Amino acid sequence: MSPDGRTTPAAEAERIARAALTRVIEPGDEQVGAWLLRHGARKLLTLLGTADPDPGALPGAGPRRLAGLRARADAADPRRDLDTAAAAGGRFICPGDPEWPTQLDDLGAARPVGLWIRGGFDLRHWALRSVAVVGARACTPYGAYMAATLGTGLAERGWTVVSGAAFGVDGAAHRGALAANGATVAVLACGVDTVYPRGHAELLGRIAEQGLIIGELPPGDHPTASRFVLRNRLIAALTRGTVVVEAEHRSGSLVTARRAQSLGRHTMGIPGPATSGLSAGVHELLRGEAVLVTDAAEVAELIGDMGELAPARRGPVLPRDLLAPATARVLEALPARGAVTGPRLAREAGTSLDETLGRLQELHGLGFVERIGDTWQLTLRAIRRRPAR
Amino acid sequence: MSPDGRTTPAAEAERIARAALTRVIEPGDEQVGAWLLRHGARKLLTLLGTADPDPGALPGAGPRRLAGLRARADAADPRRDLDTAAAAGGRFICPGDPEWPTQLDDLGAARPVGLWIRGGFDLRHWALRSVAVVGARACTPYGAYMAATLGTGLAERGWTVVSGAAFGVDGAAHRGALAANGATVAVLACGVDTVYPRGHAELLGRIAEQGLIIGELPPGDHPTASRFVLRNRLIAALTRGTVVVEAEHRSGSLVTARRAQSLGRHTMGIPGPATSGLSAGVHELLRGEAVLVTDAAEVAELIGDMGELAPARRGPVLPRDLLAPATARVLEALPARGAVTGPRLAREAGTSLDETLGRLQELHGLGFVERIGDTWQLTLRAIRRRPAR
Predict the structure, then answer these.
(1) What is the distance between the alpha carbons of residues A208 and A143, in angstroms, rounded to a whole number?
(2) Nearest chain A Cα to B294, which residue?
(3) Which of A3, A125, A154, B200 sits a CA distance of 20 to 30 A from A240?
(4) What pLDDT shows up at residue B246?
(5) A2-6, A226-230, B382-386: lowest mean pLDDT where?
(6) Using a CB-CB distance cutoff of 8 angstroms, which residues of chain B are in contact with residue A289?
(7) What are the structural domain ranges in chain B?
(8) How far is B283 from chain A (nearest CA, A)?
(9) What integer is the mean pLDDT of B119-146?
(10) If you classify domain B114-303 with CATH, what class do you get?
């Protein structure tokens, strides 16, 4: 988009090329990522589609690899993918878009080409105050209980709960956040219109309504083992910290946690019995740099910044008149003094409860509002900046 | 004792005065401890027994406190206490004695006046490789299991297990060490001839046979709340590190652990469910400086030094001809090559199994032998120094 928010033809072409590249490049491929940084999406796509590209332009690639990429580039149909996504209420965002979570740039050459998104809220604003809660699929009842309790407790404190929508810990964390009318983001290792795991169809449906579903893969694409692993880097990079609830030795959750650590994010673990193999991986982390936490308050204490100016550190706070209209309406409906419940605010703003709560989460990320239990109020800073009516 | 090992009359008088002072001074009293460092035991006892001592000699004491101390000094009968202890197979050791564990000197003015001991082994040698395992009296079955498993695993690795002989974690740790034919030291908050808690009469009897029972209080003296707290400093100072198995917030075990920390010893905690109040105190520690451990191997890895020269760092290794005769006999009975079991070695040395195992623990502390599972062998260093036969 241009600075005035309208898309230029050049930017639109670059965006379509990036959408195409999500079908060509495997997530996290740092070699192609380096080519992308060098050439931009349009030129890279052209190079990949060329029978005999200049070897100096795509350094390090053998002919077999180039042939594979060319086959994928030839088959890509980004306009159809964008239409499919739009028909399912989805969208595609790129680096540079206002909604792009700039913390993903910390991934360097492994930064996603773009993100496919389902759900009506602003990812960047939600991710400003987000924390990952991850862990074993085959967790114990204790693990599920802790994940759900953390999800609820973090949501009640106004944190967006990010996880991978898997069975076990992931699902419990999402459900805990949803149960508290909180914000939750599912990061998938497949197309955001793909229901995986199948048993989570209903949960994913609820997240698409009340939260956000995001991923790097284009519509209809399926997960693979390596995509799960590489999805974890997204969860780590998107959030301020990662909490591992239960994990065996050598589990994917530990990969997420170590990636979070290497990105300078907070890494936390929930302790469990020393006799439990499902806590062994967490304990391994806790014997390293990770911090032991036992509840949402301890997580929030570690990753939260002091005072309401906190979100400013992650990105510039939008002036009020640059807010999305739906978000601005919710902000306007908040009383100058005192807290209101979500349902009451929804009536005031003339919109649905889910919509209101999602917009409140954006405003929370931006530092305009704060959550106190089940009620919301303007921050001191927002009151000071509030225009006279 | 004089350098040749014989007691001089002056040293004997000082020792008797110290025995008397254990009935006069409460454990850990740093004010009286400072007077003791200044005057020595004999002079301090005389000063405390004087109706109107020079106020400059006992700075900081009010008349009421001095009257209390005088009453106790008048009532003390150290020769009777020493006879009582000797009749029960006990002894009294003072700073400067060969058996004195010099690491207790780290306590400064809170150093014990002396230690009453039951059990036939050398406390200093045993304490060279010792670790404290402490925790809640009302522990869960998980806590008892972990304490027993740690006690056994540490004993199998040749570590002396030190604890407070209380119900729950303490008892389980002692029993775990005893079950592995290992060395264990019970540190009491009462006279070492006093059975407390009563329900541990049999356990204390076994420890007196197979291990050591030590304490600051003279024969027959009873525990009080403050004595339990101050006993903990002794456990912390005696050992290379303290493992807390289960502990509620504000529990005595946390006092021990924090004291260990302030003395520069390792502090460790066994994690448990975040939902368990009996793990809450441990998790509090682990959120600070303490290290999370899940088994004896991790404890040994942390507190153990690399290689067999380790014990030299804690104190000078005795030349072979300064070993107690019973200890030297066990050393002589060890084969030049290969490992032997305790029972076989006991036959070779012509003594009992308990005696043999206790002496082996002394030799282990001194770096002469190492334990491999249930067998013992000479260290490389001991073989090199072995005199030709």
Answers:
(1) 25
(2) A274
(3) A3
(4) 97
(5) A2-6
(6) none
(7) 9-89, 114-303, 315-385
(8) 7
(9) 96
(10) alpha beta
